[in-house]
Amino acid sequence: MELSGARLGKKVLEMQGVSKSFGDRTIINHFSFLFKPGDRIGIVGNNGSGKSTLLNILAGRESIDEGNLEKGQTVKIGYYTQESVDMDENLRMIEYIRETADSIALKDGSFISAAQMLERFLFPMGSHGTPIRKLSGGEKRRLYLLNILMSAPNVLLLDEPTNDLDTQTLTVLEDYLETFSGVVITVSHDRYFLDKTCHQLLVFKNKGDIDFYYGSYSEFLEEKTEEAEPVKAPEPQMNRTEKKKKKLTYAESKEWEEVEGNMERAELRLKDITSEMSAAGSDFEKVRLLLEEEKELTDKLDHLMERWTYLAEKLEEE
After folding, report:
1. Is 292 helix (H, G, I), strand (E, B) or coil?
2. Of 7, 50, 69, 229, which has the fewest Cβ atoms less than 10 A away?
3. pLDDT single digits (tens) 276-306
C-alpha cells in the first residue's frame, strides 16, 4: 500500500536557536536542527522532559519563547497525539473518514476508497456503518489514526503510538511507514517500534539540552550501558518471576501474555486455509481470496515471532 501523499519540497522544518520554558523550568534550550526529506527521527528521554512539547511546537500548537522555526511551503503535517480526540460520536465510521477524504491516491496513480482503507485498518466492510459511539476506546484511536493518514500528510508526527494502539494496528502502521515517502518524527519509549521506524534520535537531557544520535534506539541504549559505571550496587535478591515483571513495560507484559496464543491461532488458520484451498477446486475467486489471507497471516505470524523473540530475550536479561 504505497500512498502518494502530498508532494514534499526540499525544505521541511528548520529550528534555529529555539527555546521554550514553562515558568522557571526550561524545556528546550537554544536548540537548532534541520529536518530533511526522508528523515526518520525518534525522540527519547525521561517522562516530562519536553518530548511532546517539541512535537507541539513543530505542529504549530505551541509557541516558542525565542529563536525561529521555519516550515517549508509544501509541508503538510499529520499529528497523532496522546490527547483525547474530539469526534462527533453520532457519525458512522465511514462518514467520519469521508469528511476527510472519499479516497486517497496511490503512487501508481490509482486510488483507494475510504471503505477500502477502513478494511486495511482492520474494520470489516460490514462494520462501516457503525456509529462511533459504539466503538471501544482502542477502535476509536485506530479510526483517529486512519483519519490522519487519509489527509495525505507528508510530515507525520507520532506521540507515543504504542501506548494505545494494539499489536495488529501497529503492524499495519509499520507497513504503512515502510513505504511512506515523507518525514516521520516519533516520540516513544518502545525500543522495537523505534528500531523499526527510525534511524536517528533526538535525546532529551536535563535543563532543556537535546543531543543528536545517528543510529537505532537499541544501539543508543547499548552505548549508554557501556558508558555507565562498571561497578554497581548488588541488587536485592528476588525470584525469577519478580525479575520478569520488572523487565517488561505494562503494554509489553500484556503483549507477552497474548503473543503465544495469537501465534497458535495464526498457525491453525494457515492449516485450515491449506485444506480449504484443496477443497476449492476450480473456484479460482475463492482460491485467490484464500491466497491473500494466507499471505497476510504469514506476514502476521512472522511479526508475532519477532515480537515473541524480542520479549523472550528481554525477560532473560539479567
Report:
1. helix
2. 229
3. 777 777 677 777 787 888 888 888 887 888 8
- Is residue 101 within 8 Å of residue 138, measured between CB atoms? no
CA distances from 197 to 105, 175, 224 (A): 23, 10, 21
DSSP string for 233-288:
PPPPP--HHHHHHHHS-HHHHHHHHHHHHHHHHHHHHHHHHHHHHHHHTT-HHHHH
Question: Hey, what amino acid is at 116?
Answer: Q
User: How many other CB atoms are found less than 10 A from the CB of residue 133?
Assistant: 11
Question: pTM (2 decimals)?
Answer: 0.70
Helix (H) or strand (E) holding 12: none
Q: Quote the Cα angle for 212-197-86, to 5°.
A: 100
Query: 60: helix, coil or strand?
Result: coil
Strands 103-105 and 111-113, how do they pair?
A: antiparallel
Q: What count of other Cβ atoms lies within 10 Å of the Cβ of residue 169?
A: 20
Please calculate the CA angle 170-175-178 and round it to the nearest 5 degrees. Answer: 125
